[in-house]
Specification:
This protein is an alpha+beta fold. Helix content is 54%, strand content 23%. Strand 2 and strand 3 form a beta hairpin. Helix 3 packs antiparallel against helix 4. The longest helix is centred in the last third of the chain and has 17 residues.
Length: 83
């Protein structure tokens, strides 16, 4: 089990478009307020973090806002650092 902070933009996206296992993990997470935004601290297996990142891949495309692309990049970096 690994604890990582999921950026709020990704969490909001996954609450709507994620599969049931990801939404369950998000429901068990703890909200961390930071300045103007927030993160969701989730303790889950690394495979679930990777699944959540794949399901939020739409936020890494050119059509996404710069904040969404950055949130995706930050989470991907956290996952990479955890391995």
């Amino acid at each position: 089990m690994i604890t990582l902070d999921l950026p709020g933009l990704l969490a909001d996206h996954l609450l709507v478009g994620g599969d049931e296992t990801v939404r369950t993990a998000l429901a068990s997470g703890r909200t961390i307020r930071r300045g103007q935004g927030h993160s969701l601290r989730i303790t889950a297996p690394l495979a679930l973090h990777r699944t959540a990142l794949q399901q939020a891949a739409a936020l890494a495309t050119e059509s996404a806002s710069s904040a969404e692309r950055k949130a995706h990049r930050v989470y991907a970096t956290r996952i990479t650092a955890a391995t």
